[in-house]
Specification:
elongated; five-stranded antiparallel beta sheet; alpha+beta; four-stranded antiparallel beta sheet
Length: 200
């Protein structure tokens, strides 16, 4: 079984405007990593569009795509957050928040009209974004004695993990990050170096 160790997200904030029967839908797609970031963005946009009838949103977090939420913000249940989340899902994206702001134009759209509009607005914001593939990474810390620095550095050079930090005291400690599927090999090689210990 091959392990999925990549995921797709967007690189920068994009916006799209969709109008339907004089109702205006402003969709903002925002790359996020944490719930804290999501909270901050939601506060920002709720303040910015304080005069809008509805500020609805959906988000998906984490490479496993299990952490998500859809919010209708006063629209009929399932007509706003769900279609927005549906667009995140159908594009297989994560680490993404999509906010759709609605200014009511005086003509009711009905539930099916709302679903179409929220879906279209979210889809356009995604279409305007640059989608990138990222790898799922894991971190590992290894401590070793200074004389074995060359052995460790050789492994780092060949396996190409990212060096996050390194300290050289009595014991040297190196913190590394590497793609999930390559961690097993990196760990096994580090463990073979004399005096090396993997720090959990």
């Amino acid at each position: 079984m091959t392990q999925e160790d990549t995921y797709k997200t967007i690189t920068n904030i994009t916006e799209a405007v969709y109008t339907e029967k004089r109702s205006k839908f402003i969709a903002i797609a925002i790359p996020v990593r944490t719930l804290e970031e999501i909270k901050q963005h939601l506060e920002t946009y709720q303040k910015k569009y304080y005069d809008a009838r509805h500020v609805c949103y959906a988000y998906m977090l984490g490479h496993e795509r299990k952490n998500f939420r859809a919010n209708d913000n006063g629209e009929p249940s399932g007509t706003a957050g769900k279609p927005i989340l549906g667009q995140i899902n159908s594009n297989e994206l994560t680490d993404l928040l999509i906010v759709v702001v609605r200014y009511f134009g005086g003509i009711k759209l009905g539930t099916s009209g709302l679903i179409v509009a929220y879906k279209a607005a979210a889809a356009e914001a995604i279409a305007n974004a640059e989608i990138i593939e990222k790898t799922v990474d894991e971190e590992i810390a290894v401590s070793f004695e200074y004389p074995f620095m060359n052995d460790i550095m050789r492994i780092v050079k060949e396996e190409e993990p990212e060096i996050l930090e390194q300290t050289y005291d009595m014991d040297c400690i190196m913190k590394l990050r590497i793609r999930q599927s390559m961690m097993g090999k990196l760990r096994a090689r580090l463990e073979k170096v004399e005096t090396a210990r993997i720090l959990e």
